[in-house]
Specification:
With 176 residues, this protein is mostly beta strands. 14% of the residues lie in helices and 35% in strands. The strands form three sheets. Strands 1, 4, 5, 6, 7, 9, 10 and 12 form an eight-stranded mixed β-sheet that branches. A two-stranded antiparallel ribbon has the order 2-3. The radius of gyration is 15 Å and the shape is globular.
Length: 176
Amino acid sequence: MPIPTSNRPGAFPVPARGNTGPVTHPLTDGDGWVRCDTGHQHWGRYGAAGLLLRTTDAAGGTRVLLQRRAWWTHHGDTWGVPGGARASWESPEQAALRELGEEVAVTLGTLTVDRIHDDDHGGWTYWTVLATTTSAPAASPRGHETAELRWVPLDEVAELPLHPGFARTWPAVHAG
């Protein structure tokens, strides 16, 4: 399903490339810590979502856009997908695209959502929105939550120090 990513009315806003200043965004009703049924603490009162953006490189290999989280964030200096708390009124796709806009300076064309992986922790869910784009646009950190962004070949993802939640779901997300 193609998702518009321009600033046209009805489209999900995606920031212009090169704007790397701090982003001031209002808190949503989803911001806050919760405990899942197993007692683990998670960010996002209504769960959280992130975007795993994929593309094919010139050699025919698949690359994914990964974010190295800032050192001061929960599980800082680990790699995962841009993402965060979902507001009560957002779909996982909307939350993932909003979070991308808050954390990453990138200009995207149309995305195709391939599928959504849900990692249900019992009372709290993380949705990984898997989407494809036709090229690997330049991406840089926006604000202070992102230390680095990189288009990573699929076979190199598991070699990185991954966010623990992403490390657990990577085999299922990658296999699907």
